[in-house]
Amino acid sequence: MKSALSDFILGKKGIYGILHIIILLMSLFLVISISIDTFKGIPFYTQSSYMKIQLWICLWFLFDFVLEFFLAKHKWRYIRTHFIFLLVAIPYQNIIAYYGWTFSPEVTYLLRFIPLLRGGYALAIVVGWLTYNRASSLFVSYLTMLLATVYFASLAFFVLEHKVNSLVTDYGDALWWAFMDVTTVGSNIVAMTTTGRVLSVLLAALGMMMFPIFTVYITNLIQQSNEKKKQYYAEEEEKKAPAQGTT
Question: In this structure, how many other beta carbons lie within 10 angstroms of the beta carbon of residue 65?
């Protein structure tokens, strides 16, 4: 028996809906895995089971790219607009492990986030499907990507800073830093590592780009509400006019 969600996906989005849902579920698995390892301090770069799982997920992402390429009507346009998804689907960690290259644990940790860029795109699309109009779809998609970026940045900042920064004692401090940076207000936590400083700049830049979109969306909602009120009062006046003419 089909669920309402499967009916919605099959009825409106077809094969693309199924692919995006699978990508989203796999990406959520990676997010949960990264979060558990981060909070428990598990040395993920020595776990062969995680490497195998990530390899299969990346292979699925590559399969999805190839399948959507063959299904696309304008193939070269698809390549131009989706080439970044081909790059993020490459299992870099498995390639590095195969050739025996060594990087610092921090760099290895950051490499884990690369496949999640594909999942972030799928998440924005799926969330956008559930909204009632294009403006709301765009707003919710941007909001989802913003919150996901803040969460991933806070995880990376915690891993990089908590050993060298006395102001980062737990994950809550890193999450506070991320939210304050993305709002461009800033916090009392100053990054000590180079990567932490880069994340600070990127979050501030992201906030400056995203929050004007929210302002425009709220303004648009207010304008639509005012227009509906004007239309309602105009209709009421039209109803009263014939009644007054008959008296």
Answer: 20
Give the pair of three-digit tokens for residue 120. 């972030």
d(CA 74, CA 135): 26
Q: What whole-number distance in Å separates Cα of residue 43 and Cα of residue 241?
A: 77
Local structure of residue 42 (DSSP, 8 states): -
For residue 5, give both structure tokens: 């969600």
Using CA atoms, how far apart are residues 134 and 48, in angstroms rounded to an integer? 43
Chain centroid to Cα 120, Å, comes to: 4
What is the full per-residue pLDDT of the chain (247 aa) written as tens digits?
344 444 444 444 567 777 777 887 888 888 888 888 788 777 655 566 777 888 888 888 888 888 888 888 888 888 888 888 888 888 888 888 888 888 777 777 777 788 877 777 777 666 666 665 566 666 777 777 788 888 988 988 998 888 888 889 889 899 999 999 988 888 888 889 888 888 898 888 888 887 777 777 777 778 877 887 788 777 777 777 665 555 5
In angstroms, rounded to a whole number, what is the distance separating the alpha carbons of residues 85 and 60?
A: 12
